[in-house]
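Assemble and predict.
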Amino acid sequence: MSPNIPAIEVSGLRKHFGATTALDGLDLRVEKGTVAGFLGPNGSGKSTTIRILLGLLRPDGGTATLLGGDPWRDAVELHRRLAYVPGDVSLWPNLTGGQAIDILSRLRGGVDTNKRDQLLERFELDPTKKARSYSKGNRQKVALVAGLASNAELLVLDEPTSGLDPLMQEVFTDCIREVKAQGRSVLLSSHIFAEVEKLCDTVTIIRDGQTVEAGRLDELRHLHRTTVSVVLDRDASVLASVAGINQLVADGTKATFTVGEAELGGVLAALAAYSPRQLVSSPPSLEDLFLRHYGGAAKDAGAAPAQKAGVR
Amino acid sequence: MTTSTVPAHAAAPAPALAGTLARYWMCVRFLLRRNWLRLVIWVAVLAVMIPIVYTSQQEAFPTQADRDAYANVANTPAIAAMTGLPYAAGSLGGILVIKIWMTLAVALGLASTFLVTRNGRADEEQGRTELLRASALGRHAYSLANYTVVAGLSVTTGLLISLLALADKLPAAGSWVLGGSIAGVGLAFVGIAALCGQLGSTSRGANSLGVAVLAVFYLIRAIADVDAHDTNVTPLSWFSPIGWGQNMRPYARDSWWPFLALLALAAAGCALALRIEARRDLGMGLLPARPGPARATAFLASPLGLALRLQRATLISWLIGAVVAGLFFGSVAKAMTSVLDPSNSFAKAFLGGSQDMLNGILGTFVLFNGMLAAAFAVQSLSGARAEESGGRLESLLAGSLARTRWLGANLAVAAVGSAVMLLLGGWLMGASSNGAATGSGLALASFTYWPAVLLMLGLLLFLNGFLPRPGVSIAWAVYGVSVVIAMFGGLFSLSEQAIKATPFGAVPRLPAEDFTFLPVLALAAIAVVLAVLGMRRFATRDIMPE
């Protein structure tokens, strides 16, 4: 397989369930050797996309290519080369975690025993316990160990850390960095912005089954406005007359406003005339990008948990 | 002061009893509220058996001469092993005891076990006990309330049984002993279940332990009763609380003192359980949950190995069922010829219209075998659907596993398992029939039903492909209708052709009828067509967990 073929290429993907439209022309591209973040509100179609990529669902329209093959037709062959970690892991209650790991690994092709044992230790998972007695976090660890112990070219991870504590999330972050260093590709669906910002090269944000934003994380930042907070030696409302300043909120000598990338130089030069005592500029965070696309109604509902999830 | 390594809670004096039982009555009310429907159903179902069985036996043995004739033949090893010694088969009360005492005692024992676990260990496992204990509740209040409420089930059931027996004008002393002996066995199992709930650390473990203890006690008394001379028990009978209950002998000896032993066992079990509860940590059992294997064998990780492992309990319990049914059918077949009245319409339907009574009975028993195997097959293959709806199939198919290979492995377990059930059950039936038939003869007769079993499997595969959500329910409904038509079609004055058009009715009733290829081939062909269509559809449809 030539190196320029993307690990995942999806365009115009459509899927209906009865009267509801789950995917409405979704695009997604994951280059080889990169970690791609896949973000969207609940019910926006992330899991549906992943299920189509795994050959579990059949698309109604559009194209999907996985490792150069057809995810539906070539499912059995392609799955030797990918590992999947679901967000809500269900296991066989009367089998142990270790047995489940081996079953899932062997169905893909084989078990790398060394790697498996190392991961068990890193994730502090007891493989001799019956899955019935595992908590959500431990069930998630079983799927993670099975997925990460593989040498698959592509990892498809659907909210893989939703049940893990912060320490274990850190272990997960390290593991994904190692995967990336080995030149393997990762599709990471997540709600944890800090995780995505730390790990991902590219980000795709979807909403209502459509892609609303996609690109390299650093490029996306350029497209959006920097937020600046200043404290002046006079009433800050004078800033209203400066060209390039938007969304100004002035409160006494304090002010907060946004500036586009192109106007930043001019604005800073103009600011110097007002002798600022303090100046803080923050680049647009992923959370800002994300909340922007979640839109009005979703903003109120989505903002609080999103912030919580992002805090470490 | 000396240093000590004893944990502080072990050294501390036990709090006063009143403290450990605080809010006991509140717990009793709460438990009654939570379980009342279950309790009422158990009491009603068990007690109503008395008038039903009494009336049927009164019809079967209307005169004293009939009962005396029965008393001469009642004492067979099969009766002794299954229901106990027929010590008073010459009276209606004694016959009632033969027909229903063991069923009621064992059922009440099981009910007590399951209820004690449900409100005890299961609550603890689910974390509900923690919530209760965190409130101002004595440590033993909830457990003791649990034992009290379930003991109340035994007492109420026993009382109602006695009253219903009295209402049927059975002798008063015997009727009270009848209710008392059944209630006593139930109470004893409250004590045993209380202990099991302290020993096991999961509700499954506690229930399995309780059922195992009950099975062992049942077996002990079965051996004792088979070994008995005439109707005099062997001492072994006293090593089982079920035996104690039997030895109260309602409508004969009417002895009450074994009842005291049953009460003592109940009290000792509950007291010991509370003692253990006072010394252990919440959520733990005396028997720790055993760790399982950390690795899966290569076979377990294959589709067939996984299907076999997941179906293991189902497979084993149905095989045991087939063995027990085969032995039972075989051993009673000859005796049934003297019980059935060929002019009775029920009997006619039972014999499937056969003129030869013995072969008619055997043909019907073989049909039962076929129905059992089909029930196993449907239950086993339903497991595949449960894997999909439970979300586990997604993880499997995300590996390099073809859908048809996975479903094929599950189908193989159901198809081969049912074939083994048919052959084994049929062979044992013939071998235990005292020469009424041969093992190989009935094994082959049973196996004739395999195409009917395959038809049910084909139907389930078809439904799994096209109507996955209601599929399993529809398959069971079709199974139920087919069973009823095959067994009672004649009674509903259904035509011969209509009965022959159903899966079980289509199969020639060996050994009463001659073997014919056409219906068997037709069943197999329909099964294959349905299976292929279902498999193809499953290979191309969306996989949908629920």
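Residues 8-221 of chain A form a domain with the Rossmann fold fold (CATH 3.40.50.300).
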